[in-house]
Amino acid sequence: MAAQFQLVMHSGPTPGKVFPMEGDLITIGREAGNGIIINDAEVSRKHTQFVFQGGKVIVTDLGSTNGTFVDGQRLTGQHILQPGQIISLGEQISLLFEMVAQVDPNATMMSTGRPPVVPMPAPVPASQPAVQSAPAMYAGQVPSGPKFSPPESPAKQGNSKIIIIVIALVVLCLLCSCIGILYYVDSKNLWCTYLPFLFGACTP
Questions:
Q1: Nearest Cα to 7, choosing from 84, 114, 91, 71?
Q2: DSSP state, 166?
Q3: Of 47, 92, 133, 168, which one is least surrounded by beta carbons within 10 A?
Q4: What is the dihedral of CA 81, 86, 87, 93, to 10 degrees?
Q5: Backbone angles phi and psi of 82, in degrees to 5
Q6: Cα–Cα distance between 93 and 56 in angstroms, integer?
Q7: CA 204/CA 57 separation, integer angstroms
Q8: Are residues 36 and 116 in contact, defined by beta-carbon separation less than 8 angstroms?
Q9: pTM of the prediction?
Q10: What residues does 50 pair with on adjacent strands?
């Protein structure tokens, strides 16, 4: 029968060594004949005893010189071990009490005739319709485009015509005034009076 418990040396002559605990009674000591032999000066010839009763492990010190300790407490009688406790033999040797994981030989066999469940692949999302791109937004200066001159409004066109008419009237008035003045000067024979430098004949 496979061992259900084991001791793992934490400190001592062979740290990390595993001691399977097989049988109903196991002793630890320095001399041959013990179930677990630890050759160290702190270990007595017969140091500690382990007894299996009803699925439990009972540890007892066998009158060793340096004593047996469980989690730092020296044994003065029997003690039921719990997995994870530390057993110390004297001050230099410590052993971890562990439970061995049991492996069911039938665990790898299928218990039913059902086929293994195969995970379904994740559904492929339906193709999304193409999203129309939004009109381009411009930050800052808008790109220059072809220049376009808006047509002049009717009011502005009317103002231009009025200005042209006024200028034409002013020119016409000036022209008429000049003609009138020249006619008056000529009719009165006043050329020599107003413009003597143009006519040498007027000189006395």
A1: 84
A2: H
A3: 133
A4: 170
A5: -120, 140
A6: 23
A7: 167
A8: no
A9: 0.49
A10: 26, 59
Instruction: Return the amino acid letter for 163.
Output: I
Radius of gyration of the chain, Cα coordinates, nearest whole angstrom: 63
Which two tokens mark 128? 């999304």
Residues 6+ apart with CB under 8 A from 142: none
Which amino acid, residue 45? R
How far apart CA 56 and CA 49 sit, in angstroms, is 14
Per-residue pLDDT of the chain (204 residues; tens, 9 = 90+): 456 899 999 999 999 999 999 889 999 999 999 999 999 999 999 999 999 998 899 999 999 999 999 999 999 999 999 999 999 999 999 999 998 876 555 555 444 445 455 556 666 555 555 555 555 554 455 555 555 555 555 556 667 788 888 888 888 888 877 777 777 767 766 656 665 555 554 554
